[in-house]
């Protein structure tokens, strides 16, 4: 039984990923500021933690390692976004987005990597986004953090191979609570119209990618970004990109 820690597993992609690993018999721990959704969390344990707080993350991972005796997989999934134009970005919002989305991944991965290198194995995974691959209006700070995750993935892989693997998943539009909170029905429909697959992804489809990347079948994959976007970034479509939507968590 693997020990798997997932940040932001109380809802969205994180919750679906926790469910996927739990169904496979893994022991899953959820690090999240908010409590699991009312219908219950698939994770075996919830630890309230702000992933932007490196000390809290380090302590939480150390506790899990002491309790379980191993730390096999860490999925840095927690993320936030604030929809605003570049001329309207507030410093406090931009700093919080960066602290959670980028520095949060760095802190979680560093703390986990120290444990994993000591035990001789481990897999580091993270939720990036197609927003990190090209410019998407009204998400400048979010876009920058997601591009940064790809750079972290490459660097961690170079420094920690072959003991620890690192990879990230870059979803396109995903029907998550965060996505639904920021977009109207018309905006969601417009987004579907410009995705070649004609729809948003289900969180379970992203979870399946994480499960694969954590598996032995993916043991030769490190330093890579797996894009799951229904063809959105494959090339130009007949629809305009003015209402581009980010990946939800």
Automatic annotation (TrEMBL):
InterPro entries reported for this sequence: NAD(P)-bd_dom_sf, Sc_DH/Rdtase_CS, SDR_fam
Coiled-coil boundaries: none
Annotated keywords: Oxidoreductase
GO molecular function, one term: oxidoreductase activity, acting on the CH-OH group of donors, NAD or NADP as acceptor
Repeat among keywords: no
A Pfam family this chain is assigned to: adh_short_C2
Family statement: Belongs to the short-chain dehydrogenases/reductases (SDR) family.
Matches recorded under PANTHER family: 3-OXOACYL-[ACYL-CARRIER-PROTEIN] REDUCTASE, SHORT-CHAIN DEHYDROGENASES/REDUCTASES FAMILY MEMBER
Protein name in UniProt: Short-chain dehydrogenase/reductase SDR
